[in-house]
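Many introductory courses stop at the sequence. We go one step further.
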Amino acid sequence: MVLRACFEQRLFTELPPGPVPFVNVEMDGNWHPHGSDDLRRLSDTLTAHADRLRELADRLDGLTNALRDHETRTRVLEKARWPLPSIVTVTAVRSLALRLYEVTGH
């Protein structure tokens, strides 16, 4: 949005006299040259942010692996649990059949 406003005001049509390694155009249209110290600080800040992003990516990989391990363990437990409802159902049907047999007087 800032660049669009700058282009609409035609702030980039005139360059300042002399070589400027890096410039910042404010909304007021004035050119603000930055020295090498500013560029070095900007570079150091970007490097620090890149390092932090690498650390976060490594942590995310670790969390992804832990989640995958959790999912595998959960699947194993779910597979081991399936006979229990079947056993309960068979027992209930057997009990009902036995009760009906007793009620009918046989």
